[in-house]
Structure formats: structure tokens, C-alpha cells
Amino acid sequence: MLLFAVLLVVTITDLHLQWIPDMVIYPATWLFAILRLWVGPQPWTTYFTGCLTGGLMLAILAWISKGIGWGDVKLLGMAGWVLGWPAVGVALWLSVCVGGVTALWWWATGRVGAGEAIPFGPFLATGIVTAYFWGEAWAAWYGSLLAGSIFSSKTIYMW
């Protein structure tokens, strides 16, 4: 429930002010980290890895793109404590896909102009909520694709 409250505040402030408040993200990050040390279906290292990799992946995108804010980076790091690895990767992937399609639609319909900033926090919130419920399953499915199980010899012979 706390996660959804944090994401609601982040979505509203990012949409209206294009700013993700540290006064919300920092306490929530600490709280989720402390909770994950004692409570969680996975070992705490799964969530620590999620925090580091989620934050690092988005930090690299922020550094390369110069358009993603550091509040977004901190938000995904916080989400890593909730989702763990690899679900936080699913959250980022979904956020980029949904945000990209929405940005293209807004640009095509004239809602935003070329080069105009679009808040990424609401799309991160969408990806985080989706990954919260289905992230593990999506990561397992995608991992099976990468492992080649869909293209195994049995599958090829069936076709």
C-alpha cells in the first residue's frame, strides 16, 4: 500500500512540476530497504541487486540521453528494493516502451512539440506497478526465450 501511495505522489508531482521529490523517495527507499532485510519471499540480496541494477541502468540512460532526471533514477532504485532483480528490469523495460509509444503519440497529435520535456515518472510508476504484479512471470518468460527453449529442437520438429 505504501508503494502505491509513493507512486501516486510521484506521478502527480512529476506531471505538474516535472520534479520527483527527494523528501518522498529517500524515506521510502530506507523503509523498503529495512523491511526487505527481514521480510520478503526472496533473500535480501535479490532486492539489493534490484536496487543497484535498476538505479545503475537508468543512471546510464540518464547520462546518455541527458533527458532523464535523477529523480527517475532514484525512483527506480527505490523500486528495486520492492521488486528485486529481475523484476526491476521488467519495470524499466515496460516504462521505456509505454513512455516511448506515448511520447510518439503525443508528438504526432501535437500535444507536445519536438524537444519538449515529457515527465518519465508516471511511466516508471506504470512499469513498477505492472512488474509488482507480473514482473517475475515476465522475466521468466523472457529468460526462457533467451535460453532458446522456444526454438528447441522439439519445437522446430513440431512445425
Automatic annotation (TrEMBL):
Domain annotation Prepilin type IV endopeptidase peptidase: ranges: 1-103
One BP annotation, GO: signal peptide processing
InterPro entries for the chain: Prepilin_IV_endopep_pep (IPR000045), Prepilin_peptidase/N-MTase (IPR050882)
UniProt entry tagged with the keyword Transmembrane: yes
Transmembrane segments: 23-39, 46-65, 85-107, 114-134
Annotated GO MF terms: aspartic-type endopeptidase activity
UniProt-listed Pfam families: Peptidase_A24
Domain of life per record: Bacteria
Keywords tagged on the record: Membrane, Transmembrane, Transmembrane helix
CC terms in the record's Gene Ontology section: plasma membrane
Family assignment from sequence similarity: Belongs to the peptidase A24 family.
PANTHER family tied to this protein: PREPILIN LEADER PEPTIDASE_N-METHYLTRANSFERASE-RELATED, TYPE 4 PREPILIN-LIKE PROTEINS LEADER PEPTIDE-PROCESSING ENZYME
UniProt protein name: Prepilin type IV endopeptidase peptidase domain-containing protein
Organism the protein comes from: Polycladomyces abyssicola
